[in-house]
Design a protein that fits this description.
By secondary structure, this protein is α/β, with parallel strands linked by helices. It is built from 11 helices and 11 strands.
């Protein structure tokens, strides 16, 4: 069916969502939402297809996003929940970062508190590149969501059984990748270096399920030094803080990839902690690998910073200072 000039179409992914719980017994929740709007709402497979005026699509987009978040938080939703969400959205009081961007298709993952999705053009390019390529290098400053989005995409792949496990690795540069002199067992030794990865996972996976994943090896968080000699089949691999790898470490990690695997390499080349005489494996990889089919380099900037509003200004100020010092 062709749409008239004032109508648009939008598709909202509900992959991984319990549609019976979301739509209600006999689709009663769906019918309750639909009666408040003139837009057409169709459920087809793992998508909700919306057709109508843009303002109606924006409101419906927010309603279904809110309901999915509630469902993830409470394991069920009620008639009262549906009525409350509709009322709040119609009053303009509900917003999960989804307002007015018209891009429901880019939602990566629903958590108990939010819908994780790209928030800038650079992040959108990053997510699209990961969908199309097996290895993606993401280079950019702090606060641009490099690691958080990578973990979200990995969790989404594991949830949808497109991979069997997630491997998250980070170089423990401060310990010289020689952790034997530190007290305690392996986890106690490396936890300080891997904590950001744990934090991201805890945001996205319920605690009991994450514990089970860690125990069974479906999710593995390891220092880079422990990756040598392994073959990673059917895995989503994330190498974080890759600016602190040596060229041999970078080659070692990339050559671990087996069949049906995917890798995201993140780093900030302005924050290299290696000795001044050591070349960064991330810096060298751009010269060696750029242009190879199936490998993509994405460059984020201060425009893609999604932390506190001052972080972008801080990054710009340091960049300007560095350029001035170099003159």
């Amino acid at each position: 069916m062709s749409l008239d000039a004032e109508q648009s179409e939008r598709r909202l992914s509900i992959r991984g969502v319990d549609t019976l719980q979301l739509l209600g017994q006999g689709d009663r929740f769906l019918r309750e939402v639909a009666k408040h709007f003139e837009a057409r709402i169709t459920v087809r497979g793992s998508e909700i297809i919306l057709k109508g005026a843009l303002d109606q699509l924006d409101a419906l987009d927010r309603i279904f996003t809110e309901l999915i978040i509630l469902l993830n938080r409470n394991q069920s939703i009620t008639d009262a929940d549906v009525e409350t969400v509709i009322s709040l959205v119609q009053k303009g009081e509900s917003d999960n970062g989804n307002r007015g961007n018209g891009n429901a298709r880019s939602i990566i993952l629903y958590t108990k508190t939010s819908a994780i999705k790209p928030k800038t053009d650079g992040q959108e390019e990053y997510v699209a590149a990961t969908q199309k390529n097996d290895i993606v290098f993401v280079i950019g400053p702090a606060g641009t969501g490099k690691t958080y989005l990578a973990v979200a995409m990995a969790v989404e792949h594991l949830r949808d059984r497109r991979v069997e496990r997630i491997i998250l690795a980070r170089p423990a540069v401060e310990a010289g990748e020689n952790l034997g002199f530190l007290p305690g067992d392996l986890r106690e030794k490396v936890d300080p270096y891997l904590r950001p990865l744990y934090d991201a996972l805890h945001d996205m996976i319920p605690s009991d399920k994450l514990k089970r994943y860690l125990e069974t090896g479906a999710v593995e968080i390891v220092p880079l030094a422990y990756m040598r000699g392994r073959t990673l089949n059917n895995a989503f691999v994330i190498l974080d803080e890759a600016q602190n790898t040596t060229p041999s470490q970078m080659k070692m990690l990339l050559t671990r990839l087996g069949v049906y695997s995917k890798a995201i390499i993140t780093g900030d080349i302005t924050q290299i902690d290696l000795p001044s005489t050591t070349v960064s494996g991330l810096v060298q990889s751009r010269e060696v690998l750029e242009g190879i089919e199936g490998i993509r380099f994405i460059y984020l900037s201060e425009k893609d910073v999604v932390r506190h509003r001052l972080v972008r200004s801080i990054i710009k100020a340091y960049d300007a200072f560095g350029q001035h010092q170099g003159t």
